[in-house]
Specification:
Oligomer: single chain
CATH class of the largest domain: Alpha Beta
Largest sheet: 8 strands, mixed
CATH topology of the largest domain: Aminopeptidase
CATH superfamily of the largest domain: Zn peptidases
CATH architecture of the largest domain: 3-Layer(aba) Sandwich
Structural class: alpha/beta
Strand order of the largest sheet: 1-2-4-3-5-16-6-15
């Protein structure tokens, strides 16, 4: 059973919606114009039960089916990234320093397409909760919506999401049971010493050698503290210090991320990072202040729901990989999967520039596959009684 004919018939509408969103990117929790556009479309589809303002600018809309049944949540993220666009397309961002470089404009258009079809047909029992979420890229809008009681408020029993995939062929779905994306933590290290003239290092306490030692030492967390067969990445991504060639700085700032699938590894990494930074600083006669932020947890797909989602994907596409190796990127849909069972899947849009690249653009040809998946999922999971 391929792409739904009715959805294919309004594919040009989804393209228009998506390109409008691409021209008008918003960041973080401040997705108010995007949310207003979403609400306008939902109302035009005949959907009246719409709640706005979750996680500042999030939207949840309910479509009532026919008769009693469960409530399934379908989620799309709405926010863009703080990047300059270099696609050269006619619908490029009109906002300097912002662009939809992760396909969230496409995610929103696909869910709107599914909403239009489901509102027309209502060929399912129970209810559908359409979740349009801000701030996936930062802060964790999914976390905020869960903490605000979204699941309980709308009686959501399961929750599903798609993410565009520029490493997969057009229409190819990829997922796996268990961990599919990693947790991500962020750390900051301020190495503090006593600055002065570069000609007189003996009169200073130079934080630079300590910072270099800490940077090297952090790599031993993976190579000498973690189980060699476990998945752990410690990335030092920033180091800033000094203002001139003849001045010894009084401090060096360092930061980076830690990624894993195992909560015990998160604990290990934080403990060792603190010990290394503070110990190596002390050995060099300076101090280190460590700030460690626990951010998105690992995205973990329950086995039963993942198998059923993969089967629905086969009905839509026929091209399904259901044993995808886990990836070390992170996704705040993890908070929703921690609260309710469901599945996170990637949808191939054809090989091209990576997400978070200034030349990335969502492939509108993928939208009918995603919208059809969401629609078939509801009709399969919540069938009408015979």
């Amino acid at each position: 059973m391929p792409v739904i004919n009715r959805i294919a018939a309004f594919a040009e509408d989804m393209t228009a919606w998506r390109q409008h969103l691409h021209r008008n990117p918003e960041l973080g929790l401040d997705c108010h114009r995007t949310a207003a556009f979403v609400v306008e479309k939902l109302r035009s589809f005949g959907i009246s039960e719409i709640t706005e303002g979750l996680a500042t600018s999030g939207v949840v809309a309910i479509i009532e089916g026919q008769g009693e049944g469960p409530c399934t949540g379908l989620r799309a993220d709405m926010d863009a990234l703080p990047m300059e666009e270099r696609t050269g397309v006619d619908w490029a961002s009109t906002v300097p320093g912002r662009m939809h470089a992760c396909g969230h404009d496409g995610h929103t258009a696909m869910l709107l397409g599914a909403a239009k079809y489901l509102a027309e047909t209502r060929n399912f029992a129970g209810r559908v909760a359409l979740i349009f979420q801000p701030a996936e890229e930062v802060i964790g809008g999914g976390r905020i919506m869960v903490e605000e009681g979204m699941m309980e408020r709308f009686g959501i029993d399961e929750v599903y999401a798609l993410h565009t995939d520029p490493f997969g062929e057009l229409g190819e779905f990829r997922t796996c049971p268990g961990p599919i994306m990693a947790s991500v933590d962020e750390f900051e290290i301020a190495v503090k010493g006593v600055g002065g003239h570069a000609a007189y290092p003996h009169m200073c306490r130079d934080p630079m050698p300590a910072a270099l030692a800490i940077g090297q030492g952090l790599q031993t967390i993976v190579s000498r503290n973690a189980d060699p067969v476990a998945s752990l990445v410690v990335s030092l991504t920033q180091m800033h210090g000094g203002t001139a060639m003849n001045i010894i700085a009084d401090r060096v700032y360092m930061s980076g991320t830690v990624r894993s699938f195992d909560p015990a590894l998160r604990d290990l990494a934080e403990t060792r990072l603190r010990a290394l930074a503070e110990g190596l600083a002390a050995a060099h006669g300076v101090t280190a202040e460590v700030t460690y932020h626990r951010n998105y947890p690992a995205t973990i797909n329950p086995a039963a729901e993942t198998a059923q989602a993969a089967e629905v994907a086969r009905q839509v596409s026929g091209r399904v990989i259901d044993d995808l190796p886990p990836e070390m990127g992170a996704e705040d849909f993890s908070y929703m999967l921690n609260a309710r069972p469901g599945c996170f899947l990637f949808l191939g849009q054809g090989i091209g520039p990576s997400v978070h690249h200034p030349e990335f653009d969502f492939n509108d040809a993928a939208a009918p596959f995603g919208a059809s998946f969401f629609a078939r999922l509801i009709e399969t999971r919540q069938p009408l009684s015979a």
